[in-house]
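Minutes, methods subgroup
Present: GH (chair), OT, SY

1. OT presented the first of two proteins processed in the latest run. Sequence and structure tokens recorded below as shown on screen.
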Amino acid sequence: MLALFQDYTIQTVAIGAALLGIISGVLGCFAVLRKQSLLGDTLSHAALPGICLGFMVAGTRHMGSILFGALLTGALAALVILLLTRNSRLKTDAGMGIALSVFFAVGVVLLTYIQGTGNAAQGGLDSFLFGQAAAILRSDLWIMGAITVAAIGLVAAFWKEFKLVSFDPGFAQSLGMPVAALDVVLTVMIALAVVVGLQMVGVVLMAAMVIAPAVAARQWTHRLEVMVVLAAVIGMASGVFGAVLSATARGLATGPLIVLSVSAVVIVSLVAAPEHGLLWNGLRRWRDGRRLEGQQVLTSLYRLAADHDNPTFPAEQAAVDTYHGVGTQRALKKLQAQGMVRPVAHQPEKTAHWELTPAGIVEARRILDTLGRETR
């Protein structure tokens, strides 16, 4: 394993993947909280015409020109979405769908045009569709690092404003904050994250890197500060793990492995995260069902006793089963263990009978009083 990290190419790819994980994790949190999870997908597809235009202007695969072109068209697509949703009756998802399809169609047209020109330098340009991590150079890392530092610096400088706009834009506007301008800045910054990941995971898979770390982090915390840090760590760790994993065998694509790594973290978070995880929710529902079952049986015994004007009326278990339509043996045993009911003999009948204890009477009254207050 140490030999892998000493490899020059693997070091470069791992550092690039870590930078991508950090910036996409941090900025993806704001996209997810603003219910714009598809924004990353839209902007990554909208970057394709910019990649082609950057190549056409530079005449070669100059990384600076290509990334600048991608940022330009990505930001333009973001502005188109904002204009469509703010100045028409279109919803956000419809605006994103229009921007994604139009910009991606233009990108495919430009890409096929470039491939038809016979320019020898265009070889591998289509790798931006699915990513080609091995083609990243050390000089590219400086560009990716500068974009990452600039984006994190902006988030730190406007932390309070971005936080308020993400959670309650109406309140932020009432305080006099330039909500529209902050919205534009946040959207353009997400376009920056997309630009950083284009060569690593490509246009098609970049949306997952924007959304997945934030979604995984959201399952573990309620605090934005913790969520942002956690998303950056998840993105960085997944990026490095995917890059190293792809180096362990020939023919394993780095970008898809990075996306699969972060997707695995999302699945684990959705299943096992405390309070929000599917496992914990299922356990909580099971416990609530057991408690509710016991309460229903207890109040049924109390009502039977009240109807017979006898607080210790011995209710036949078969009658209680028939009343509830299911077997109540388990609930009665649990109530017995809690000291709420006790089995009694009722001669000459030989079947099982149960009566309330003083503690059960008090608890049944408390439950009925609570239900009465809730229904008023």
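2. SY then presented the second protein from the same run.
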Amino acid sequence: MAVSEASAAPSLDGGGPTRVSWQARLAIAGAFAGGAVLLYLLLRTGADDVLQWDLRFGPSFERRLRTVAAIVLAAFCQGVATVLFHSVTHNRILTPSIIGLDALYVLIQTVGVAIVGARFVDNSDSILQFLLQTAGMVLFAGLLYRWMFSGRFSSLFLLLLAGVVIGLAFRAMSEFLQRLITPSDFDALQIKLFGRLGSVNTELLPIAAVICLVVGVIVWRRRHVLDVLLLGRESATSLGVDHKRELTLALVLIAVLISVSTALVGPLTFFGFIVATLAYQLAGDWRHRATLPMSVLIGVFTLAAGQFVIHNIFYAAGTLTVIIEFCGGAAFLAILLLRKGNL
């Protein structure tokens, strides 16, 4: 895949004057995201198929509150990771899944089911299994980065190419093992491989929140360095930035965020691509001070509004993440065709 710096190179005037400042845009996006969350929490379809306010704080509200927490964490992980990935690769058509983390997650689940049976996916929301899966994916990414960046041919693009090849190998092994397991185990595995927002273990949320908080603080403190990385390797190096160190740190943080999101709610391959692409168009500023929070707010709004529609309009007759993956894949192909020759 050809990679060009032209698509992500920012203008040096800060994006030029706009009618609405980036702070106001963030405030508007925050209002939309907060409104979508409140609608999902408090507005329900009654017995007469009419929407009505539900202010009872019972088990149903606690379940919706748990789903909102999963939505915020997934939006944060996918939005921040994808914006960072676009910044270091200088290409806005790529997604972090190209490294092969999603394929590794599928392989871990498939191997576990092949060895233990459906009990493996039944216990996959335990704290121990969550930590082991996250650690395994981060370790894989770390070894891949170390291997590709320590050799004489160290290159980001070789890393991406290696990620594609390894991801294909993981998928091939997963498909082979899936042909060997029983139909009942295969059904249980397929349910696990779809993104899930409404069935997250409550005990995992504080752990994921702490990891996201730590990564968020690191990323926000380095937002100005990330702005410099957008100018390209030569420009960043001439401005005193250790390009290789910053690139490696950003890739490690991306691996942590994607690993946490995947282990918590399942694969969301194109969701980050959707919210990051919208954030670039709506933020009004190319700098990370605007694009990072905008991507998170758009992610929260998209997931919360989607959950509200799925549960109250279609009565949960469908999985939101499947719809998001379909729309994201269609948007990916559309942008790929519209930017033909200018990736």
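Chair's summary of item 2: Confidence is low (pLDDT under 50) at residues 1-15.
Next meeting: continue with the remaining queue.
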